[in-house]
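dude i think i finally got it to work??
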Amino acid sequence: MRANKSISLTLGKQQQVLDQMVASGDYDSHSEAARAAVRALARERDAIDAVWKEKIREALEDPRPSVPAKKVFADLRAHHEAQIKAEKRGA
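look at this
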């Protein structure tokens, strides 16, 4: 596989952002700016993945007992019914 592969992109409104990045001198070329954007997206994805993994780890290690699904849904139904009654009283 080639290390560099030319691609064609349709950026729409983001084209102006890319043009400004190059015009400002922050980047020497559109390709350089696009590569920086892709690297930033990869860092963002990795950061989000790390947060999710930590949340999952915390949930799995939570010492509290599990709540049965039937109880969770019964509580949700009761909460929803209470909200509907409150809205009818306020209407």
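Residues 14-90 form one domain.
im so relieved honestly
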